[in-house]
Amino acid sequence: MASELILLEMKVSPFAPRVKIALREKGLEFEAREEDLLNKSSLLLEMNPVRKQIPVLIHNGKPICDSFTIVQYIDEVWNHKSPLLPSDPFERARARFWADYIDKKIYPIAKKLWIAPEGESMEAAKKELLESFKTLETELGEQPYFGGKSFGAFDISLITYHCYFHAFERLGNFSMVKECPKLVEWGERCMEKESVSKSLCDPIAIYEEALETRRILGV
Amino acid sequence: MASELILLEMKVSPFAPRVKIALREKGLEFEAREEDLLNKSSLLLEMNPVRKQIPVLIHNGKPICDSFTIVQYIDEVWNHKSPLLPSDPFERARARFWADYIDKKIYPIAKKLWIAPEGESMEAAKKELLESFKTLETELGEQPYFGGKSFGAFDISLITYHCYFHAFERLGNFSMVKECPKLVEWGERCMEKESVSKSLCDPIAIYEEALETRRILGV
Fold it and tell me: So what's the pLDDT on residue A1?
C-alpha cells in the first residue's frame, strides 16, 4: 500500500521545512496543507491536541509531531535510501545534541532579534546570535556538512534558518560572509540540493515579514 | 574490553537520575561524580564545553550530553536487554514527543512553583502543574506504564519527578492522590524497580532543599 502523507505546515517557519527536506531526501510524495495559526484547522487540533502546533506529519492517518521527531521517524520508516541520522550511536547522539542546541538557542535568539528595537537590545541579540553561529561554525570545522561527508539530520535542523540570514543581516546590520564565512559556504552547498532549495522560503519575503511584524508591534 | 562509564551528575536534579535508571536497567556498572554547579569541575567544562551542564556520560573517554539523548544512546549501545525505546517507529516518535513535553512543560512549571510566593503566583503555578500532570495521566490511561506493558524511556523521563511530588504537595497545598491518583499508582509501580528506587532522591531532602531555596530568595 502506498503511504498517504499529509503535512500540516506553515511555509514561513524554521520547523515545517525540515520535514519537507527529509521527505524529499527520501523521494516521498506528500500533500502539504498550510495552517493559519490565528485560526487553526480542526485537523491540526485533532492531530496535535497537546501542543496544537505545526508541523504535524499525518502518515496513513496517524500523527507524528515536532520537527526533529518527525525527521527521525521518516529516517526510521524509510531507511532504504539517504540515511539522515548517522549509523554510529555516538554520532547519532551528537546529531541529537546539536538539533536540541539549535532549537533551544537559535530560535529564541532569532525571535529576540526579530522584534528588538534599534540600539542596545538589537546589539545584544545580534551578539548572542553571532556567538551561537560561531559555536556552530567551530563544530562544522573543515567538513562539508555537519553530518560529516554527507548531508544529514543535523544539517536539516540548521539549514531552515538559511533563508533567515538575509533578514538577520538587514535587521542587525552585519555581514554573514564576514562574520561566519564557513557557515555561508555550508549553506550554499546545502542549497545545491533540490530537497533543500525547494523547501525553503524566499529570503526577501522573510525579511518583508520581519518588517511587517515590527510595524505591527510598533518597533 | 569492559566499558568505562563515568557519570557527571547532581543527585538533586530530575535529569541525571534518568541516566542512572537507564544504566541500571541495562545492568551496567558506572562511577558517579557529583558536580557543584557553582564550581564546575574542569572535567565537566572539557566534556560539555557548549552547555556546561550535567548530566554527561563519559563512555570510554567520549562525552554524551543531555539526559534523553544519553538514555537513547545507552539503549542503542547496550541493546541486548531491557529495551527502553519501543521498536515501532510510531511508538518511538510518541516516546520522543512526550519526553520533550516533560522537559518543556513540567520542568519550567516546577521551577515556577518552587519559588512562587504564597497566593496568586502559587495558585497559578499549581494549576498549571496539575493541568500538565492530568494531560500525562490521560496519556497513561489504563496502561501500567507510559511505555505500555513495559517500563521505558517515556517512564524514565517522568519518574525522576516522583521524588518531587511531596515538595509540590507541601508547597502548593494539594494532594497528588486526590488530584492524579493514576499517576501516583504509576509512580509506586515504577518505584518497585530497583533501577528506579536506587536512583531517586529522598523526597524529604528535596522538600528541605526547596524550603532552603525559598529562604535564600526571601520568598
Answer: 54
pLDDT of residue B69: 98
* pLDDT confidence band for B3 (50 / 70 / 90): confident
Put simply, whether A104 touches B (Cβ < 8 Å) is no
pLDDT for B200 equals 97
Determine the Cα–Cα distance for residues A73 and A57; give it in Å rounded to an integer: 10
Domains of chain A (ranges, CATH numbers): 5-77 (3.40.30.10), 89-217 (1.20.1050.10)
B16/B10 Cα distance (integer angstroms):
6
Residue A185 clears pLDDT 90, i.e. is over it: yes
Beta strands A56-59 and B5-9, pairing class: unpaired
**Torsion of Cα atoms, B65 then A69 then B164 then B214, to 10°:** 70
Residue A155, SS3?
helix
A96 → closest Cβ in B72, B97, B135: B72
Which of B58, B65, B97 to mutate to test binding with chain A, by most A CBs within 10 Å of its CB?
B97
Query: Which residue in A65, A77, A92 is closest to B97 by CB distance?
Result: A65
Q: Is ipTM over 0.85?
A: yes
Task: Render pLDDT for B90-99 as a digit per residue (tens, 0 to 9).
Answer: 999 999 999 9
Q: Phi and psi (nearest 5°) for A150?
A: -125, 155
Angle at B50 between CA B104 and CA B56, to 5 degrees: 70
- Which chain B residue is nearest to residue A87, measuring alpha carbons? B76
pLDDT tens figures, B128-142:
999 999 999 999 999
Q: Cβ contact (<8 Å) for A64 and B100?
A: no
Phi/psi of residue A141, nearest 5 degrees: 60, -135
